[in-house]
Design a protein that fits this description.
By secondary structure, the protein is an alpha/beta fold. The chain has a single domain, classed as Alanine racemase (TIM Barrel), CATH 3.20.20.10. The protein is 40% helix and 16% strand. Strands 7-6-5-4-3-2-1-8 form an 8-stranded parallel beta sheet. Helix 1 runs parallel beside helix 8, helix 4 crosses helix 5 and helix 7 runs parallel beside helix 8. The longest helix is centred in the last third of the chain and has 21 residues. Bound molecules: pyridoxal-5'-phosphate. The site of pyridoxal-5'-phosphate has 13 residues, from strand 8 and helix 9. Pyridoxal-5'-phosphate binds next to strand 8 and helix 9.
């Protein structure tokens, strides 16, 4: 077994234990493998170990990696899903619309409108999560909770997007209860959008939260997608990564 395969097994075991603890079905939480800063060979190993969904932060790096992985013609490649989980500047929105299956970090209508307009006709609609700012830091990306419903109402009207859920990146804290509190805020926002029953929520099913250090708390709070990087691929070196 490769290290990546072993690590994936350990993360799945942690997810299963957290689900059991929270009385949730193991199939209710998906694993997004965050491959930022790691090359196409690392993705290949993960694909060979059965992983299908990958998250990337740096758009240019991701576009090159997606092409390199595609060229490998791996078994199972037709089911690969690429999620953009890094900040999306206006001048990068076209690359996101043309190369990714999901954009999880939408926090402004302007970006959503560009993604919809730029999504190629031949591709399925782009899956969208609204990034919410659950700890209130004004310098952080993410919509403030009070503004989320209005943004959701605007996004569901855009023709080439499908609103799938909410994502959050709370500040690091080692304390389990504090992690749960922050994750519960994102869960409450997810529930509020769902309860609004606005048109266009037919596929609204994703609460993306939890990383290597806090996936148990996230699962406890209701996460349906944990985004795990270092727990699968190892420690990152940022030298090679670029926006
Ligand atoms: C890097 C990153 C992750 C993965 O973090 P790890 O701590 O390595 O698991 C998850 N989500 C986002 C948005 C990230 O930028």
């Amino acid at each position: 077994m490769t290290t990546i395969e072993l690590n994936l097994g350990q993360i799945h075991a942690r997810m299963a234990a957290a689900c059991a603890q929270a009385n949730r079905c193991v199939t209710s939480v998906q694993l997004l493998a965050v491959s930022k800063t790691f090359g196409a060979d690392a993705v290949r190993e993960a694909v060979l170990a059965g992983q299908r969904s990958f998250g990337e932060n740096y758009i240019q790096e991701a576009v090159e990696k997606i092409a390199a992985v595609r060229a490998m013609q791996l078994a199972g490649a037709e089911a690969l899903e690429w999620h953009c989980i890094g900040p999306i500047q206006s001048n990068k929105s076209r690359l996101v619309a043309e190369n990714f299956d999901w954009a999880q970090t939408v926090d402004r209508l302007k970006i959503a409108e560009r993604l919809s307009a730029q999504r190629p006709e031949g591709m399925a609609p782009l899956n969208i999560c609204i990034q919410v700012n659950v700890d209130g830091g004004s310098t952080k990306s993410g919509v403030m909770p009070a503004d989320v419903l209005a943004l959701a109402e605007a996004i569901v009207k855009l023709p080439r997007l499908v609103l799938r859920g909410v994502m959050s990146i709370p500040d690091d804290t080692p304390d389990f209860e504090a992690q749960c509190d922050l994750h519960k805020r994102a869960a409450a926002i997810f529930d509020a959008i769902k309860a609004s029953a606005m048109p266009g929520l037919e596929r609204f099913d994703t609460l993306s939260m939890g990383m290597t250090g806090d996936l148990e708390a996230a699962v406890t709070a209701g996460s349906t997608m944990v985004r795990v990087g270092s727990g699968i691929f190892g420690k990152r070196s940022y030298a090679a990564a670029s926006q």
